[in-house]
């Protein structure tokens, strides 16, 4: 199987190259020609492919001429659309980095292009492959918690601009922390609630954190009311200290009529302290969620197992983000666009 990774703008690109290169029977090619908007000092292009020991194409044309069986798009959010549409035109299944796009209009065009071409469009939401989330979903589906009344979620991370400046440049990212970190939990709830849809979104944002560095919002709290009556709150802030030894995390509390369920998607780790380094340390022992997602995308989910988020699901979460920004600007709840 041939898999091409298009653009290394997103920090996950290097991870995908490394994981794919270790999969038996997978040939990997990287291509990252559009580095014009990279900040000084950011490692991009051939150097990233060389570090992962994978082949490199100087242009996207060369990458598609190679004949990939699947492509993974890791460009800046605002550049997702042309690459996804190019994949659709070549009839190649595509996994697009989250969020689906920088705007709902772009997301709708991407979904339409892939549908018209009969091409699979998936969105990279690896947290849905967490064993902790699987346990929560199973308990809710079995009725063990009763009717879900409320959900409290937090997807906090470190300020990402040291690795990639574009995350805080709305022209390329579509926003700031609200765009970056609302979508993971919104995707989990889209999967957890199945037929229930978001009917109202209220959000507050600010950039009190790192106000001297960026103009985009660095903190946010989003409340989403669903058609089943459940109310969810999502802390999407870039509030994790830069000096911390981990990047951040994702936690979810689901409050039901009969039970409360709690999960931490990334805490399958042994925690300790390094006297030599003078800092905390973590040794993970759980599954690699990115690898589980990639395998499900390339080979399909096993019976009863989690599937990769599709383009329509990615579009629904993007509409929640859009409504969140509209609410933060207006100060009132906003109904997200519906299909």
UniProtKB/TrEMBL annotation:
Q: Which Pfam families match?
A: GFO_IDH_MocA (PF01408), GFO_IDH_MocA_C3 (PF22725)
GO MF term (any one): nucleotide binding
- Determine the domain of life of the protein's source: Bacteria
The residue ranges of the Gfo/Idh/MocA-like oxidoreductase N-terminal domain are 37-125
Q: Where is the GFO/IDH/MocA-like oxidoreductase domain?
A: 133-262
Which InterPro entries would you find in this protein's record?
Answer: Gfo/Idh/MocA-like_OxRdtase_N, Gfo/Idh/MocA_Oxidoreductases, GFO_IDH_MocA-like_dom, NAD(P)-bd_dom_sf
Q: What is this protein called?
A: Gfo/Idh/MocA family oxidoreductase
């Amino acid at each position: 199987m041939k898999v091409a990774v298009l653009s290394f703008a997103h920090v996950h690109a290097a991870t995908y190259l490394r994981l794919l290169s270790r999969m038996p029977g997978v040939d990997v090619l990287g291509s990252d020609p559009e580095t014009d908007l990279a900040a000084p000092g950011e490692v991009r292009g051939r150097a990233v492919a060389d570090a992962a020991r994978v082949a490199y194409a100087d242009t996207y044309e060369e990458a598609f001429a190679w004949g990939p069986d699947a492509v993974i798009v890791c460009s800046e959010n605002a550049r997702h659309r042309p690459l996804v549409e190019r994949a659709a035109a070549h009839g190649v299944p595509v996994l697009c980095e989250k969020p689906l796009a920088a705007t709902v209009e772009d997301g709708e065009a991407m979904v339409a292009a892939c549908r018209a071409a009969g091409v699979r469009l998936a969105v990279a939401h690896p947290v849905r492959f967490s064993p902790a989330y699987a346990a929560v979903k199973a308990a809710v589906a079995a009725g063990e918690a009763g009717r879900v009344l409320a959900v409290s979620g937090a997807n906090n991370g470190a300020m990402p601009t040291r690795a990639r400046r574009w995350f805080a440049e709305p022209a390329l990212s579509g926003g700031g922390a609200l765009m970056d970190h609302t979508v993971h939990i919104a995707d989990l709830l889209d999967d957890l609630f199945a037929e229930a849809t978001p009917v109202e979104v209220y959000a507050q944002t600010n950039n009190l954190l790192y106000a001297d560095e960026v103009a985009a919002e660095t903190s946010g709290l989003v409340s989403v009311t669903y058609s089943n009556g459940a109310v969810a709150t999502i802390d999407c802030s870039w509030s994790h200290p830069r000096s911390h030894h981990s990047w951040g995390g994702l936690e979810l509390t689901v409050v039901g009529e009969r039970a409360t369920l709690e999960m931490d998607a990334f805490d399958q780790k042994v925690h300790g302290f390094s006297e030599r380094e003078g800092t905390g340390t973590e040794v993970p022992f759980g599954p690699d969620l990115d690898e589980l997602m990639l395998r499900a995308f390339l080979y399909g989910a096993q019976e009863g197992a989690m599937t990769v988020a599709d383009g329509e699901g990615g579009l629904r979460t993007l509409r929640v983000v859009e409504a969140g920004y509209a609410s933060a600007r207006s100060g009132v709840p906003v109904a997200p666009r519906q299909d």
